[in-house]
Each structure stands twice: as C-alpha cells, then as structure tokens.
UniProtKB/TrEMBL annotation:
Keyword Acyltransferase: no
SUPFAM superfamilies (UniProt xref): MFS general substrate transporter
Alphabetized UniProt keyword annotations: Cell membrane, Membrane, Transmembrane, Transmembrane helix, Transport
Residue stretches spanning the membrane: 15-38, 50-71, 83-110, 170-190, 217-243, 255-275, 287-310
Protein name: Multidrug resistance efflux pump PmrA
Residue ranges occupied by any Major facilitator superfamily (MFS) profile domain in the UniProt entry: 12-377
Organism: Lentilactobacillus kosonis
Domain of life: Bacteria
GO molecular function: transmembrane transporter activity
Length: 377
C-alpha cells in the first residue's frame, strides 16, 4: 500500500508508536538505579536511602494521578495533539533538569513537576482510540502497547549501561533528548481532525461516564489497572539496592539492575500476542482474572529469593502476567468509551495506573539487608 493511500489514523499510530517508545524508554532508563544516584548525593543510612528512593519514585506518579483528569478534560475540549506536545515538551525540560539535580530534595521536586507534565502515552492511546475503526481497535491497541513496552524493555538496559560507564546523570539527558525527538515527530507527523466538545457540555466524571453502556466494566478496568501497577512496581524503588546485595556489591550493578528491570518487558512482548489470541477464544474476563491470580502467585516467592538469577526468572514471569492484563484493559476501554469523552476516560485510566505506582512502593518494609516485603493480591 502506498503512503498516499494509507489512512491518516495509521500514519498517526506509527508516529505515536515512536512517541510511546521514547516515553517508555526514557522514563524507565533511570529508574533501576535511582537509589544509587541518590546514594551519591549524601551519606544516608539504609532506612533514609530507602525512604528517599521511594519518595523520588512515587512523587512523579502521585502528581500524575492528581493532574491527569484535568489534562483529560482539556484534551476533550482542545484536542489530543496539543496535549501530546504539552507532555513531550514538558518532559523534555524536566528530564534534562533532573540530570542537573544538586541534592535529593531538588531531585524529588523536579520529578514531582515532571509528573504534572506527563500524559503522553494515555493521550496517544486516546487519539488512536478516537480514530481507529471498531473492528481494528484490538490490533491497534496491541501495536501501541508494543511501543510502550518495547521502550520500557530497552530503556533500563541502555540506562544501566550508560550509568555504569558514564555516570548516573547521563541517562536523564538522554531521556530529555528522546522526548525532544518525540515532540518533533508529533508536531510534524501527527494530524488530528478534532471536533471539540461543546462548552455547554459538563466535564465532571459523571458526565464523562454518561455515554458508557457498561459502567461497571470500565470501573473494573480502572481497579484492575491500579492492582497491576501496584504489584509490578512494588519493588522498583529498591530493585538496584536489592540487586547490589545479591551481587555482594561486585560487578556492574547498574547494568544488571537494568536487565532485571527490563525482563518483564521482554516477557510481555513475547507473550502478549498469544495471550491476546487466547482472550479471543475464551473471553477477556478469564484472561484478566487468571492474569491477576498468576501475578500474585509469582510475587510470593520473591520474598525468599537469594540470587539474581532467580529474581530474573520471577520478574520474567511477572511480564507474562502483564501481557495477560494490559492490552485487555486498553481494548475494553477503547470499545466502551464514547468519542466525546475518550480522553477523559483514558486520563482516569492513567490516574488509576499512577495511583498503583504510588501504592505499590508504599507497601515496602525495610528488613535486614534490603530483603523485600512484596504486595499480595
């Protein structure tokens, strides 16, 4: 098919796929070694280092959860492309400034500001969902997910390598550059035929749900998203500290931490197509339910892990659980959301995910030598 005959929604999807990839890669590039970066900013005891790492990790998602509905409401009035540019440019600036953080308090502050400018991925989903033909929504959401997950997969590995060779600040600068590229691609290659919601239409959460036939299903998707993110991210703030302990402080801890952090993404990329096909045969509800159960079962043995190898195996299995969960949730939201409120629905979805990223790490408890208390469902 020639480029001229390619539908605009497909061209948008390709451009936004790269934007999702850049956002996923950049955001995950620094997270595995965030505690190691903080440890260079002062001589902190273990409990204080764990506390600062958790705060620096969670504050981005906390501010994101708070402001996402506001951006979603604005997107339904002004269009998704302006929100994509707002998010990408905002993260370009905030990610770059993070690399210049002189102390842990400035780091936490800038990461909080970064959260207020986030929202590229959920606006990308909303734009594609508003344009894609219904019969191709599952395929489109699956392809968009591969961009996000692919970025989250390669980001920690590249970030770990760069951090191990050039220091912990460089990945933040790379993140900023990637978001600048995403901004340019969005500006020049994404075209939106947007019809704004009339000003007389109310923008509260009840009004956003007014046109949804199966409201309970959508609320169930929000709850599932919160649980998925809480489980997956429950050990992320201290994963590099835990890897450091398991490696007895020998070798390239940043690189190994990046690989361990990336393993769920690898599993998701391989497992998502097969589990999506399984969902078509047995129904998405069964896949979603068993994915949640499997996630809880896999997390339990992490408490007893004594080697990096076993930690990697269990993290890989968590990625299989994610492959059963995330595309199903996004497809259901796409099918259920009316066009005039799709941005708001996806912003609430992002808030649920962000709250999960805050709740998960809050379940951590410090045990001797950074043993892990995990989240159970």
């Amino acid at each position: 098919m020639s480029n001229a005959s390619t539908p605009q929604w497909q061209k948008n999807m390709r451009a936004l796929w790269f934007g999702n990839f850049a956002t996923g890669a950049g955001a995950s590039m620094s997270l595995p070694f965030l505690p190691l970066f903080i440890s260079q900013m002062g001589n902190f005891p273990k409990w204080e280092l764990t506390l600062y790492a958790g705060a620096a990790f969670a504050v981005t998602f906390l501010t994101q959860a708070i402001v996402s509905p506001l951006w979603g409401n604005l997107a339904d009035r002004t269009g998704r492309k302006p929100m994509l540019l707002r998010a990408s440019i905002g993260m370009t600036i905030s990610a770059t400034l993070t690399g210049f953080s002189p102390n842990v308090w400035v780091l936490i502050l800038i990461r909080g500001i970064q959260g207020t400018f986030s929202g590229y991925i959920n606006n990308a989903y909303a734009l594609v969902a508003s344009e894609v033909p219904t019969q191709q929504s599952g395929v489109a959401m699956g392809k968009m997910t591969t961009g996000t997950v692919g970025g989250q997969l390669i980001g920690p590995i590249i970030g770990g390598y760069l951090a191990g060779v050039f220091g912990y600040r460089i990945p933040f600068f790379i993140f900023g550059f990637m978001m600048f590229c995403a901004s340019m691609i969005t500006l020049f290659f994404v075209k939106e035929d947007f019809k704004p919601v009339a000003k007389k239409v109310k923008s509260g959460i009840k009004d956003a749900f007014k046109g949804i036939a199966h409201k309970r299903v959508v609320w169930a998707m929000f709850a599932s998203s919160l649980l998925i993110q809480a489980a997956t991210n429950s050990i992320n703030p201290i994963i590099s500290l835990f890897v450091k302990q398991l490696m007895h402080n020998q070798g390239n801890v940043a690189l190994i931490s990046g690989i361990i952090a990336a393993l769920p993404g690898i599993a998701t990329l391989f497992a998502a197509p097969k589990l999506g096909s399984l969902g078509d045969r047995v129904g998405p509800q069964r896949v979603l339910l068993w994915g949640l159960v499997f996630s809880g079962v896999v997390f339990f043995p992490m408490f007893f892990v004594s080697s990096v190898g076993w930690l990697g195996v269990l993290r890989f299995l968590i990625g299989i659980a994610d492959a059963a969960l995330l595309p199903v949730v996004q497809t259901v939201l796409t099918l259920e959301s009316p066009t005039d409120s799709v941005s708001r629905i996806f912003s609430y979805y992002q808030s649920a995910q962000a709250f999960g990223c805050v709740v998960g790490p809050c379940w951590l408890r410090e045990l001797p030598e950074y043993s892990i208390t995990v989240t159970y469902f």
